From TrEMBL:
Coiled coil: none annotated. InterPro entries: AB_hydrolase_1 (IPR000073), AB_hydrolase_fold (IPR029058). It holds the Pfam family Abhydrolase_1. This is Pimeloyl-ACP methyl ester carboxylesterase.
Length: 287
């Protein structure tokens, strides 16, 4: 695989930054996408696909990509339109996509709206919280995290976020009232005054509240595979992934590890299981 070449793409309301690792393969490009995680998070996974052209990008308002319209939040529809334009920029598709977390939500929207651009979409643990039987409690918790961020800053809000996504089973109705100490997660208690965190300030509301077009997904000519982690347990990302799979008429495919298993230590986080994860992804993409 060649060294990544970086490019910019002007889209309505933003300038996107993306990277292309070129190869001589005749296979379609492989897009690796997250949200709000940027291209850095896919560095290790990209290295496992040196035999293919791999495209990564920073979603608008994350990493190097910046909004130019002054909007405070970004919807999955906007992200899907950005992906549509990005695919046009790298050849028009159809492409293969591995999409994780909020990126999986955006990938599903893309597949519903522009299925002709997608050959295979592997949607890994999409937080499609609207599908949960306990969605009222889960969405109340999501709203509380966003409000905590706007009121008190990153530390207290991120502590609540960690509690939410690691909770096993249905979300209790009193979740927003749970006392959470940021220091137990090594997070700051002081508010630095910034409010530009793409996860806590944007994705928490627009991603989790999004209502997917399952009729369009079932009818799409694109191959859609919903993936869940074998070690995620009964946490929210796996629960939503299982229901999304059911809603589009399939069973989820079990991948090694947990929600971040494809990572190899990016952002200073403990490494997941990237070798096993990449091998499973290659198997799934091969059909």
């Amino acid at each position: 695989m060649s060294e990544p070449k970086s490019f910019t793409l002007d889209v309505p309301g933003a300038v996107l930054h993306y990277d292309v690792r070129e190869s001589d393969s005749t296979e379609p490009p492989l897009l690796l996408i997250g949200s709000p995680m940027d291209a850095v998070g896919f560095t290790t996974l990209a290295g496992h696909f040196a035999d293919r052209t791999v495209v990564t990008y920073d979603p608008r308002a994350a990493g190097r990509s910046r909004r130019t319209d002054g909007a405070a939040r970004t919807t999955p529809d906007e992200h899907a339109d950005d992906l549509h334009r990005l695919i046009d920029a790298v050849g028009g598709g159809p492409v293969d996509i591995f999409a994780s977390s909020g990126g999986a939500v955006n990938g599903l929207v893309l597949a519903a709206r522009h299925p002709e651009q997608v050959r295979t979409l592997v949607a890994h643990e999409p937080p499609a919280t609207q599908v949960l039987p306990d969605r009222a409690a889960a969405l109340a918790a999501v709203t509380d995290i966003n409000e905590t961020y706007l009121k008190s800053g990153m530390g207290p809000a991120m502590a609540k976020f960690i509690m939410l996504v690691s909770h096993q089973g249905e979300i209790p109705a009193d979740f927003p009232q749970w006392p959470v100490d940021p220091t137990q997660f090594g997070l700051p208690t002081e508010d630095d005054g910034t409010r530009d965190d793409a996860l806590l300030g944007q994705n928490m509301i627009d991603c989790n509240y999004y209502e997917h077009d399952f009729d369009a997904l079932r009818a799409a000519p694109a191959r859609i595979v919903v993936a869940v982690g074998e070690k995620t347990g009964a946490a929210l990302p796996r629960r939503t992934g299982e229901i999304v799979a059911e809603r589009i008429g399939q069973r989820p495919v079990i991948f090694p590890g947990d929600h971040g298993a494809f990572m190899g230590g990016e952002y200073g986080m403990p490494p997941g299981e990237p070798d096993a994860f990449a091998a499973k992804l290659r198997e799934v993409l091969a059909g």
